[in-house]
Amino acid sequence: MHTAPATRQHLLDLLSAIEHDRLPVADIEEGYISTACCILANISMQLNRPLKYDPLKKNMHR
To answer: 44: Cβ–Cβ under 8 A, 6 or more apart, which residues?
Structure first.
């Protein structure tokens, strides 16, 4: 009730997806990719250097 309209719509879609046994519009894999990109960018900025990330293995390496 007290969230941004877009967040509220995603939540309502998730609940509907659970109720109707379907995938939500914003499925978890897409959320993971978006979130991981932001987190990796923040880590890179804090370390003041680029990172090497293997998207297939989903890990960082030097």
So the answer is: 50, 51
Mean pLDDT by 10 residues, the chain (62 residues): 78 94 86 87 93 81 66
How far, in Å, CA of 59 to CA of 50, rounded? 14
44 burial level (CB within 10 Å; 0-12, 13-18, 19+):
middle
Q: Phi and psi at residue 57, in whole multiples of 5°?
A: -85, -15
pTM (2 decimals)?
A: 0.58
| Identity of the residue numbered 30 | E
Tokens coding 48 = 């003041």
